[in-house]
Amino acid sequence: MWARSPVQGIFGRSPFKPIQEHMRLVDACAGEAPSLFEALAAGDKRRLLETKERIFDLEHEADKVKNEIRAHLPKSLFMPVDRRDLLDLLNAQDSIADSVQDVAGLLILKELEIPDYMKELMPAYAARNVDAAHQCKRAIDQLDELLELGFKGRQVDRVEEILAELSCIESETDGQEIELNRALVCDEGLKAGDLLIWWELVWRLGDVADYSQDVGDRLRLLMAR
Question: What are residue 15's phi and psi, to 5 degrees?
């Protein structure tokens, strides 16, 4: 007998439930990022590898939900939301988890030493990027109520407040990124190979907030249509 897809069952209750489930997994994946740098700063290789494995597992679970959504999203939905808009929203969410996975993968490429000045800066930067992902999830959690109210009224105002805070967080991470890159450039003792990896880590980690902002922008488009 053909097995019914779990995501198809979710669609039966709400067209937004699978999107919210995907964002939940993405947010959980992003939430592991600070632990990577805390483990690196402490020289705890076991914790670093365990955190990397959790990130890869969560990203894989998010990918499975993403692929199920793509396979079973109805061609037409009886609501004021275009299918293409939902897929674009899904892709933006997925990019958050991909960025965290990239960071975890880079950290195990080689024995990377963390400079003393990075031991506080990098976990703080990671945490603020995670704040952006958390804020993004808060906004996506409102999708059901937005639909029920026809994307009108006080719920829209509430989501706009959440997205405004998300924009502020993303701007803060931009400032942190500049501070980190300036510190790296001024470190004359850092090996060229390590410098390149650190630049890549800072950039990829910053993508978490950038893609969270992208999700917020796409959510604004949904509310405007």
Answer: -70, -15
